[in-house]
């Protein structure tokens, strides 16, 4: 078991990548605080395989600092420590010309995809500093380095996520807290179709735009991201910080 008894908070736990990451972490022996806006069905989605004493579902809005503080407090109360924070929650942007992007759209995307990383990190770092160890993983996107037209706010939010990851990696190295990012390529989750422009066929776009843009010829699967997160959280990655892992089938080449 590569994550035996490590305590991990996983955001976006009800989504495609988040749920798979919760499952993989449980399989590897972790104790998981799974958090999302919608956690009502989490136990059913886990299919009864999870040990009840290893999973704790907490409803939280990652843009709300009070929710985040309460999340950290509940994690410590339940499991006594926090070894890993995996920031997976995020939202897409449907492809939109820049002149049509509203202030509200821009602010919402930056708040959920970027500000949330600041809020969760600020809340978890004091816990990790006390432990003199910890791992933070931010899910960004290969789109931040290999952009597509019309995803202006989304790409900006993920570029900031990468810069923030490296800013924290250097700041927290002396506290033995490792901070890394994963850039998924186009992944087979509900989110993917949401990148298509309004009025276009999302399912067709998944194939004609997204799958065909991956050199290895297949969409990324949630377990590909979950496996990378397991590695980065494990002691196998003890010398890895400030890294950006492209799990993208070669899309970033
Ligand atoms: N799917 C892709 O093609 C792709 C590609 C590159 C990067 N990503 C990134 O990967 C991550 C996971 O994406 P996914 O494909 O699993 O998406 P998804 O839509 O399946 O899951 C996202 C989850 O985030 C949660 N969430 C959204 N806003 C929230 C909030 N304010 N508070 C708490 N939870 C909130 C949603 O409820 C949802 O469960 C995202 O950060 C996304 O930007 C996805």
3D architecture notes:
This protein has helices at residues 16-27, 42-46, 65-79, 103-131, 152-172, 190-193, 202-210, 222-233; strands at residues 7-11, 31-36, 55-59, 84-87, 134-139, 177-184, 244-247. With 253 residues, the chain is an alpha/beta fold. It has one domain (7-247): NAD(P)-binding Rossmann-like Domain (Rossmann fold). The protein has a seven-stranded parallel beta sheet with strand order 3-2-1-4-5-6-7, with helices on both faces. The radius of gyration is 17 Å and the shape is globular. The model has no long low-confidence stretch (mean pLDDT 96). It binds nicotinamide-adenine-dinucleotide.
* CATH domain topology: Rossmann fold
Determine the oligomeric state from the structure.
single chain
Number of domains: 1
Gyration radius, rounded: 17 Å
The CATH homologous superfamily is called NAD(P)-binding Rossmann-like Domain
Side by side, the strands of the main sheet go: 3-2-1-4-5-6-7
Taking the alpha carbons of the first and last residues, their distance comes to: 33 Å
Name of the top-level CATH class: Alpha Beta
Structure summary:
The chain contains 8 helices and 7 strands.
């Amino acid at each position: 078991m590569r994550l035996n008894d490590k305590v991990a908070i996983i955001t976006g736990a009800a989504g495609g990548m988040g749920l798979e990451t919760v499952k993989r972490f449980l399989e590897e022996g972790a104790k998981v605080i799974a958090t999302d806006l919608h956690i009502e069905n989490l136990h059913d989605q886990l299919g009864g395989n999870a040990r009840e004493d290893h999973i704790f579902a907490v409803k939280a809005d990652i843009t709300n600092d009070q929710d985040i503080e309460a999340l950290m407090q509940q994690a410590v109360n339940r499991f006594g420590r926090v070894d890993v924070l995996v920031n997976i929650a995020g939202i897409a942007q449907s492809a939109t010309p820049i002149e049509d992007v509203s202030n509200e759209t821009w602010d919402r995307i930056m708040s959920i995809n970027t500000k949330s990383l600041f809020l969760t990190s600020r809340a978890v770092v004091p816990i990790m500093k006390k432990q003199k160890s910890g791992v933070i993983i931010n899910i960004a996107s290969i789109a931040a380095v290999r952009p597509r037209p019309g995803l202006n706010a989304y790409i900006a939010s993920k570029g900031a996520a990468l810069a923030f990851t490296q800013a924290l990696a250097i700041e927290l190295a002396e506290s033995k807290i490792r901070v890394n990012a994963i850039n998924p390529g186009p992944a087979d989750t509900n989110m993917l179709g949401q990148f298509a422009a309004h009025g276009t066929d999302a399912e067709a776009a998944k194939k004609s735009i997204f799958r065909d843009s991956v050199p290895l010829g297949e969409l990324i699967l949630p377990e590909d991201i979950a496996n990378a997160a397991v590695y980065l959280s494990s002691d196998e990655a003890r010398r890895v910080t400030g890294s950006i892992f492209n799990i993208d089938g070669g899309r970033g080449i």
